[in-house]
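INTERNAL TRANSFER SHEET
From: sequence group
To: structure group
Subject: TetR-family regulatory protein

Please process the attached sequence and return the structure record in the designated field. Keep the field labels unchanged so the import script can parse them.
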Amino acid sequence: MTKADAGTTWRTYAGSGLPPILETALACFMEHGYHGTTIRTVASRAGLSVPGLYYHYPSKQALLVAVVSYAMDDLRERSEAALEEAGSDVQRRLDLLVECLVLFHAYRRDLAFIAYSEIRSLVGDARATYIGARDRQQRLMDGVLADGVARKVFTTPYPREVSRAIVTMCTGVAQWYRAEGALTPHELAERYRAMTRMTVGAP
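Return from structure group:
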């Protein structure tokens, strides 16, 4: 998803959205973990020689950084599009942001799982960049909760803590959701919206 189509497609998911090499790297990371994956394995599964892979990505770390960066950029763009669709209605902003988070972590389960679980494998500036992106994402929810409390739409006395709890609940979907399970991503999102309303003290 790109900025150009963000406004109309934040609910739409078609494939992983990753370039083929990164899609292969993601599959390898899911199967073997970052440290258990070798450049040779990624190259072989992508139909490339090792030098051919290095032409595109100079290291295994570069592959991980590209995968994680795509995940965070995609989530951010979708979240901003959901908030834009919601307008100024703070309850609707909360509903759509929660829906967006749940859909992303269900449809992009592998991508989200690697982005969150392999932060320990990022080094130097890449780690700092990821943490900055994660914190900016959190601030979207923080802002909605603070606004809702200020307007007396939400009654929770702990907006910051509740904001983090909601985000943690939504991102946790990537750890357990399976497409063959009882609920579709959209059905799950509806339940999470209901749970979130109770958590914030909404009517």
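Handover comment: The chain is about 70% helix and 0% strand. The CA atoms of residues 20 and 46 lie 7 Å apart.
Transfer complete.
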